[in-house]
Amino acid sequence: MASKSPGSNPLEVIKKGCLQRNLCDEHGYRRPGIHWTFSIAVSPDDPTQPPNLRTVGVQRVSEDGIDFIMKKGCGTCDFLASGKALSILHLQGRYMPGETVEQWRGEGVCETRPLNEIIDHLPTYSLVAMLSSKSIEHEKGALVEELKDKVSGKRLAMENKSHMTELIQSTRLALENGEISDETLDESIQVFRFRPSRLECMIGGPDSVLWNRWEWQTNEKSDEWHPAKALLPH
Asked: Is the pLDDT confidence value at 155 over 80?
């Protein structure tokens, strides 16, 4: 007999586990000072190139999806905004006696969301880092191409760490004093919501005889989830 499904909506299952581990509050928002991430893999148009893998901070998980932010203007941000398919990996828990680990994998798409929906819950250091990086791009102007690495052409090199440190400090102060306009924030930061069409989870630990593995898929004509299916662990 298969074990009981952990829930009908896998996003609610993720939220429940993160709440129990004190990663988020009862509304699914990341708790202050908590390191909470998941990984996103997107395939480039060029099949000879490897997938672009990014680790992003989870800002909220709800029954509608997983919210996160990214600096506007980068290739990955543009790719996600286009609505192309992507894969994710989310890990939580600890592999220790008496405890369990949850490994979540899934596929879906991202949709853009207004920054004002979650800006009051975003960590200051993330906002400041993205705003400061965007300021460097504006400073370089047309010469920003000189900062791009010679391998992928996608990542920007740091020319002057002292200048970047000063910029971060001044940006933090300006943000705290309310001196950064909504327009500047909107030009620099994009909110995304990952909306999965399939999720699977493996749950177990060192005391587990058999790890439980579950899969959920959405209805092709709606966002409703089909009942979870129990899968073999490998």
From this structure: no
Instruction: Please check whether residue 89 is in contact with residue 105, taking contact to mean a CB–CB distance below 8 angstroms.
Output: yes
* Residue 11 to residue 129: CA distance in whole angstroms: 29
Number of neighbours of residue 7 by Cβ within 10 angstroms: 18
Overall size of the chain counted in residues:
234
Indicate if the alpha-carbon torsion angle 60, 194, 39, 96 is positive or negative: positive
CA distance linking residue 64 with residue 109, whole number of Å:
12
Q: What H or E segment, with its residue span, contains residue 108?
A: strand 101-113
- The full DSSP string for 5-67 is PS-S-HHHHHHHHHHHTTSB-TTSBBPTT---EEEEEE--SSTTSPPEEEEEE--EEETTEEE
Q: What is the mean pLDDT of residues 16-21?
A: 95
**218 beta partners:** 225
